[in-house]
């Protein structure tokens, strides 16, 4: 019988981390304020109390130190899970991630594994100050040796964090911070189910008029747009990428061959981005099926704006619907 629990994304992550720690004593959690406070978003709430300060470590405010320490722990057989408090703070650790975490397995011809998970709350929509609402995922998806995951729902959050921790490859795990505690995003999680593969995209709503591909916080926008489009007689197929590197685009190709149209949706700036890669790959693989060019709905090619302007920056339902109309008018 299914063991169903209705969870927010934040609670699902907390329970997933707890289960991983229960199953493997080599799993450690480390980061700024992850222990006594339970993290600024309370994702690690209660874990230090239950597992102790030797396994849930409050670190100094030094991202390069957090990642560098995790490298040493991984070499010694541990499975460290690092929390970057906000995505904009990850860059002091970028050198460690790109030069050591991503390359040690390859450099040592497989002798040294890097089973490190780096959790990154990302994206806008929380009214935060500078450096707290960015979308740097494309930078990491471009680095060979790293895997990049972005969850959009509680089921993937619960199982995905456990699958990432069990992986021998380093994984950046991007979490949509504005959806952590959203009641609208609660879903039933079967904690005894067999989870989907981590590195596979998924059709989350079927349709025939056009395909919308998204990930992380943009999946909710895509689903809301599909619901609104239905009232206008349009049927949008929505695909959640789930993993950004490696990209699983076969379901996208299959969908585009059916609908003939694709809208790629992301909060990140458009230039040199994941939506750029999706557009290039789809036009390469599905050229003769396309009824219109691949169109994109993204953030703008500017630094993330002050909080009072972010509603104009972030892609929303209206921008998606307008882009669908542009595609249909082609």
TrEMBL record:
SUPFAM superfamilies: Thiamin diphosphate-binding fold (THDP-binding), TK C-terminal domain-like. Residues 7-182 form the Transketolase-like pyrimidine-binding domain. Pfam families: Transket_pyr, Transketolase_C. Its cofactor is thiamine diphosphate. Keywords: Oxidoreductase, Thiamine pyrophosphate. One of its GO terms (molecular function) is magnesium ion binding. PANTHER family: PYRUVATE DEHYDROGENASE E1 COMPONENT BETA SUBUNIT, PYRUVATE DEHYDROGENASE E1 COMPONENT SUBUNIT BETA. This is Alpha-ketoacid dehydrogenase subunit beta. It comes from Amycolatopsis thailandensis.
